[in-house]
Amino acid sequence: MTTSLTAEGFPTHLAPIDEAAQAALFTQARTVNSFTDTPVSEEELSAIWELAKWAPTAANTQPMRVLFVRTPEGKERLVKHMAEGNAAKTASAPATAVLAVDTRFHEHIPHLLPFRPEMKDALEANEEMRTGLGTYNAALQAGYFILAVRAHGLAAGPMAGFDKDGIDQEFFPDGRWRSTLVVNIGHPGERPWFARLPRLEADSVVSWA
Amino acid sequence: MTTSLTAEGFPTHLAPIDEAAQAALFTQARTVNSFTDTPVSEEELSAIWELAKWAPTAANTQPMRVLFVRTPEGKERLVKHMAEGNAAKTASAPATAVLAVDTRFHEHIPHLLPFRPEMKDALEANEEMRTGLGTYNAALQAGYFILAVRAHGLAAGPMAGFDKDGIDQEFFPDGRWRSTLVVNIGHPGERPWFARLPRLEADSVVSWA
Lengths: 209, 209
What we know:
Chain A is α+β, with helices and mostly antiparallel strands. Chain A has one domain (30-189): NADH Oxidase. Chain A has helices at 19-27, 42-52, 72-79, 84-92, 109-112, 119-124, 127-151, 164-171, 202-205; strands at 64-69, 95-102, 155-159, 177-186, 206-208. The first copy, chain A, is 40% helix and 15% strand. In chain A, strands 1-2-4-3 form a 4-stranded antiparallel beta sheet, sandwiched between helices. The mean pLDDT of chain A is 96. In chain A, helix 1 (19-27) packs across helix 7 (127-151), helix 2 crosses helix 7 and helix 3 (72-79) packs antiparallel against helix 4. Strand 5 (206-208) of chain A pairs parallel with strand 1 of chain B.
């Protein structure tokens, strides 16, 4: 990443990623709807979190949690809560991640933000702020997670269509984790995607001041 | 990205990104708090959205919007709404992005999701669903945006500490865009970051089924 360092060990320059990496993460990467039966190992899945975890969150709170579903029994429990259009592809994926928010993420603050441990109590006392911070930052981390799947040479198939309460009761019965997004993970199968949908033009998205 | 293609033009294999790209995006990248005075051009800033736009959103809705603040006048209008600890670094950054959600993002659905244009009316009629979908997916895109800044060899300094209502009244007075995150952008300056804060251990984050 760095070409040279200051005497204090800081970089003087940051390097961009190359075109192959841009393609793998952004420009050529596609949401995958069909998978080969090549398995994805526990090590490969663990490596996704090990990469995604480094990207930043507000006050270092890291509220996202991940349930990896790999076993046939786990898959059966998951698929019945997926929307009709998402069930078959979820069943066919070698692994599926249920991304969730830990509603009590603030309990980790004394460890994660050691110079501001009192933020734990402030969030305990303010449910609205706690929920807002957790929801926003878990979603931010979901973005990192999807790109980390791709960074490892795996295909991601994120899906918002599922019965959240059903999944939460099935897998998180104590109520602490709440599901937010389900992501199929594997290698692209036959005709894995449709033609790409349009992106907004910059003049609908970007403004200047 | 791909090593070979099927007769239909689909890849048979996806390649991981290399270690340098992993370092630039995740493992070595750090939130930057001081910047050199090297400018960041309009072309460089535009290229961030042009990369981030390709990553997926639910129903291709793309609800995130970006205001790039570069001029001295724009900076002055912005800095007064930043929290005390974020004002000086925002003033020193050559550019700052205000990431926002377009509360009427669903108006673009007939163009963005041409096979399901009726989703626009369903979201118009259901404010709770519309707000939830917009908020979640704009945050997901903020995650992509931060990594896209880094992908271009620029440093990102995301900040949640600012007066949202103040920024919205200042820059988005018609009420359609609502600010969610402010990201300083530039090249790392002197002692640009502190020691890295801890990440959660995998056994606090990851579970299996």
